[in-house]
Each structure stands twice: as C-alpha cells, then as structure tokens.
Amino acid sequence: MVTARRSESPSVAAQSVFRHIVLEISFRSRKDQHQRGRDPKYSWKERLKMIKHIVMWNLRGTTPDEKADSVRRVRAAFDGLQALIPGLTALEIGVDVSGIDYACDVVLYSEFESREALDSYAIHPEHLRVKRELADLRITRYQVDYLAE
C-alpha cells in the first residue's frame, strides 16, 4: 500500500497512489491474460521486460572503397527506421574499428519494449524492405536476442 509522506502535499500523494494503482492493474491484467492462456508464447514476466536485438554482419567488398560503400548502404537502409517501428526504442549502427580478422564489419544494436514488439518488427514492411535492400551485401550474419536485466 502506498501512503503519503508527511512532507508531501495531498496532490503529490494522490498522484503517487494513482500511479501505483495503474501499474498494479496493468501488471495484474497482463499476468491474468497469460494465466488464462491468451498469450502462451511468452511468460508474463518476459512480456514486461525489454529485449535487446543485436545483429552483426560481414559485408561484401574486396577493397576499402567497396567495403565503405557497403557500410554506407547499411547505414542508409536503417536511417529513420526507429521512428517507423512501434516498440523500437533504440537503434544504432556501429562499424568495426579494430581491423582484426575475426571481427564483423557492422553491428546493429537495438532495443524493443517487449518480445511482442520484436516479433512485430520481424514482419514489419519497413524491416522487410531493409532486409531486401541488404540481402546482396552480407556475407555472414550473426544474431543475439536477450532480455534486459
């Protein structure tokens, strides 16, 4: 139970209680939906956690200029995507600067509000457009999806 501190004004205390009630209702609603079988794919705890989606590529190109052009195309394909995908909260493209032979050329770091948001991203028309644009650029692709701690 949330109670007002003596130093808080009644309106601040009321806002605090209201926020607590809304969060509790939302939490119970999601938990109840899962327990009634409406969402068998993920547990209610997993549904409440942010998920990080990391993808690394090695790109085509035998010369530094060809590699640079491939990197430019990757950056251009993902530019503006975050604003178009619901639930995508962060997106960053990184280019390897180590130069070691076993490093990937490019990494995509992204964060999603939930596993459902990541699932929706996978079939979103803008994501499918990016996949088509980059299909001929990549030599290898590695992916890791994990729940944020």
Reconstruct the topology from this structure:
Blueprint: H1 10-35, H2 44-47, E1 51-59, H3 64-78, E2 88-95, E3 106-112, H4 115-123, H5 125-134, E4 138-147
Antiparallel strand pairs: 1-3, 1-4, 2-3
Helix pairs in contact: 3-5
Give a structural overview.
There is one protein chain. The protein is built from five helices and four strands, in the order ααβαββααβ. It is α+β, with helices and mostly antiparallel strands and 149 residues long. Helix 3 packs antiparallel against helix 5. The longest helix has 26 residues, at 10-35. The protein is elongated.
**Cα-based radius of gyration, to the nearest Å:** 21 Å
Instruction: Give, in order, the helices and strands.
Output: HHEHEEHHE
CATH architecture of the largest domain: 2-Layer Sandwich
Number of domains: 2
Q: In CATH terms, what is the fold-level topology of the largest domain?
A: Alpha-Beta Plaits
- Categorize the overall geometry: elongated
Give helix % range: 40-55%
Total number of strands:
4
| The CATH class of the largest domain | Alpha Beta
Uncertain segments of ≥5 residues (pLDDT<50)? 1-5
Instruction: Give the overall average pLDDT.
Output: 81
Secondary-structure-derived class: alpha+beta
| Major pleated sheet | 4 strands, antiparallel
How are the strands ordered across the major sheet? 2-3-1-4
Q: What portion of the residues fall into strands of 2 or more residues?
A: 15-25%
By DSSP (H or I, 4+ residues per run), the number of helices equals 5
